[in-house]
Amino acid sequence: MLFFKIVPQNNKGLVETLGKYRKSVDPGIHFYTPFIQGIKRVNLAMNPLKLPNYSVITKDNADVSASVTLNYHVTDAVKYEYENTDSVESMAQLVRGHLRDIIGRLDLNEALGATARINQELATAIGDLTNTYGINVDRINIDELTPSRAIQEAMDKQLTADRERVATIAQAEGEAMSIQLTTKAKNDAIMATAKAEADATKTRADAEKYRIDTVQNGLKEADDKYFQNQSINAFSDLAKSDTNTIVVSNDQIGTIGQLPVVGKLLAKGAKTTK
């Protein structure tokens, strides 16, 4: 009497006789002798596996919780079924061990920012597990690396302190710039005022020099008649005033009498003083 068993697509059938592996069969219908033989089916399709969070320690002794997912498929049904008690768990332990080793060589900040690099190193370290477990890991990915609560609180405090420091520096730089601009504006105003005053002083000095030069040039060209005329005009103005005293030098006494206006002064009783 024979029984039959159907091996589905993407499966491998393992025929056992009295509990001992005899041969492998492909998908399809297969007959066997009951109680003496049996057919085990091993799924060769890709399977997802999520490894629960577990603790790893970084190079700087930070406690980090790691979560990993991977996809694998059976490549050797005989090794998978007979050479390992639990090939999947053995594979998971190998993944955890390599992950601890990789993260253990990184600082916390480096590990948190290098998940792609860790994924690549982990995939390279695991490689092809066919020779050991009859399994091939097709894809592996670190879902998250989460520092412990104490470390997160410390990181939050540091981040807040860094933001406050940056804000304080920005404010100080702004105030310094404002003071610098204000000081520059005041200095520019002072320099502009000083320059204007210097220009005005120079202009007045130039005008005074021009006046003096003009007078001196005129005096150089003047003759005795000019000075006599000036004297006559001066004595004429004096005659019109209430002044009764005239102060002259010794060399001018002889010429005073020649001036018509002196008679008028003497009529007033002017007193000549040497």
What does this structure look like?
This protein is α+β, with helices and mostly antiparallel strands and 274 residues long. The chain has helices at 77-82, 87-103, 108-112, 115-126, 130-133, 149-221, 224-240, 253-256, 260-267, and strands at residues 3-7, 11-17, 20-25, 28-32, 37-43, 47-57, 63-74, 128-129, 135-147, 245-247, 271-273. Helix content is 53%, strand content 27%. The strands form 4 sheets. A 4-stranded antiparallel sheet has the order 6-7-9-8. Strands 3-2-5 form a 3-stranded antiparallel sheet. It has 9 helices and 11 strands.
Terminal Cα span: 176 Å
Helix-strand makeup class: alpha+beta
Mean pLDDT: 80
- SSE pattern: EEEEEEEHHHHEHEHHEHHE
Label the overall shape.
rod-shaped
Entry keywords:
single chain, 274 residues, alpha+beta, 4-stranded antiparallel beta sheet, 3-stranded antiparallel beta sheet, 9 helices, 11 strands, 53% helix, rod-shaped
Architecture blueprint of SSEs:
Blueprint lengths: L2 E5 L3 E7 L2 E6 L2 E5 L4 E7 L3 E11 L5 E12 L2 H6 L4 H17 L4 H5 L2 H12 L1 E2 H4 L1 E13 L1 H73 L2 H17 L4 E3 L5 H4 L3 H8 L3 E3 L1
Parallel strand pairs: 10-11
Antiparallel strand pairs: 1-4, 2-3, 2-5, 6-7, 7-9, 8-9
Helix pairs in contact: 2-4, 7-9
Summary, kept brief:
53% of the residues lie in helices and 27% in strands. The protein contains nine helices and eleven strands.
